[in-house]
Amino acid sequence: MEAEVNAFDGLSHPAREGDLPTGIQAVANIVAKTLNTRCEIYNWINGQKATEFNNFWVVKPDGSCGMEVCSPVTKGLYGISQGAAVVAAMRDSRLVKSDSRCSLHVHTEVADLGLEQIASVLAYWVKCEYTMLLAMPDRRKKNRYCQPIGMSDLLRADQLLPPAMLINRLGAYKYYTANAFHYSRNKRPTLEFRVADEEACLNPFYFKNWCKLIVHFVEVASESPYPREYHPSDPNSCYLWLYPSDVL
Prior knowledge:
Layout: E1 2-6, H1 24-35, E2 39-41, E3 57-62, E4 66-70, H2 76-93, E5 104-109, H3 115-134, H4 138-141, H5 163-169, E6 178-179, H6 181-184, E7 190-193, H7 204-222, H8 244-247
Parallel strand pairs: 2-3
Antiparallel strand pairs: 1-4, 1-5, 3-4, 5-7, 6-7
Helix pairs in contact: 1-2, 2-7, 3-5, 3-7
């Protein structure tokens, strides 16, 4: 997971080029103290590649909001509880803020899934996207770093792509509600979900349940057959958005 928070001075970029965000050391200390674990600080130069296979916590600069708190690869409820503990500690510190520039990004590993299973996850995300966005405040729906796939010209509702082509389409650009950006570039075998708004970065209840929802979604969608070709009387076909009742 990647939880975005603000620099303590509120700046997305430090006033002086190359400087670290104000407060990054304090945030790293919160993580390390909360979990009694290693937490490293990365700079602008190595921060982009540092969290692809990290096995420890990292806090690094983020040009959209200030900084980003990145977990190591985690597993199951234990991993989610570790993230929730960090989120709770940041909130309780009263030092850490998270405004509308921030969001929570959840990466789910799909290394054990076949190509068609991964495509099914992405296809059903597109079909469920409208419902997921209904749960978010309007500002999140209009965020350029979380663009709705179903509102773009990336896919046609009446045209079913082969699984590999769908993965490539959703791997070409990372700022959709969900993407296969890292998977398509062989950087890490994950799909990324970017919908959760800034509250998830400082609300442990929201954080925990959103992560559980995303993991559950991936598990269910990966076991569902890839959608069939478009049929006007079948909302389950192709990439048509589903009604919330059907999603649930």
